[in-house]
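cron nightly-structures :: item 1 of 1
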Amino acid sequence: MQVRRLHTLNRAPCVAFVAACLALPVFAQPNGGADLAFASDRTGDWELYVYSWDSGEQKQVLAFPGSDFHPTWAPDGSRLAFFHNLGDSAHIYSVSVDGGDLRRLTDGDAVDKAPSWSADGEWIAFSSDRAGSFDLWRMRPDGSDVTRLTEHPGTEKLPAWSPDGRQIAFAGVRDGNTDVFLLDVATGSERRVTTQRFADCYATWSPDGGRLVYAAQSVTDFDIVSWDVATGAETTLMDTNVDEAFPVLSPDGHWLAYQSETSRGTWGIGVAGSDGSGPTPLIESVGWDTKPAWRPTNVVSVAQEGQRRPALLGAIKRP
């Protein structure tokens, strides 16, 4: 079995190498394949990167002074929206995946953050304190037609569009606790998903819209839970002795990417089966690697009997 090595951004060899090999299906690669966007401060500045599932290469999208967080893909996989933190304020931008055509979508003195692109490409939802407390808003991908979606004295953050565009999952702070809620976009009504005494957040949708995956805090750490939209049944997907957060299912529904606490106490990115099985480190740098986001493609498994590609899902270790 031939194992593909992961390299640092400058292609220097890894000094030490710890890996587990999993036999994964060969994927069709329309629109560049099932890549993962993420944010990292490996250079000393928070920037956006894209990891190629096919080659293992990690490319920096752009060098933008300041801190760039929370990438979200346009539905055609051609652009990323993100928020740029300026300290006292933050603005939302979009950029071509090759780092060109940078566009500023919001302005002013508010903190605009955590964008989420709708599956039809018509809207970007985000959280903003432009009206006082943090509420959910939406705008067109060019920054026009800004509309307030929630009005609550608490905090609404981390929006995630449902695949059909009818609902937005979000983290809401009510009575001092953070829980997952669903917002009906047409009516403005809310449905509370979680009620436990610790925080629940970072909710995202399955490709078919049938379930949510989110991070649930316990006494000791954050774990990953799946929630069935129709029945309300909860299933714990990952329960380890370290934190896992920002879970997101691949476009074909077969894989779960997430950020996980490393042995150094930083964040890295791991991948597991959609049921949480076989969790394995995927990306780990000298810094913090956070908030994975699958490129939304028509990824289809074309694995046939006896035709499987060994893929390295190992951590990059540097001195």
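cron nightly-structures :: done
The first strand starts at residue 16 and ends at 18.
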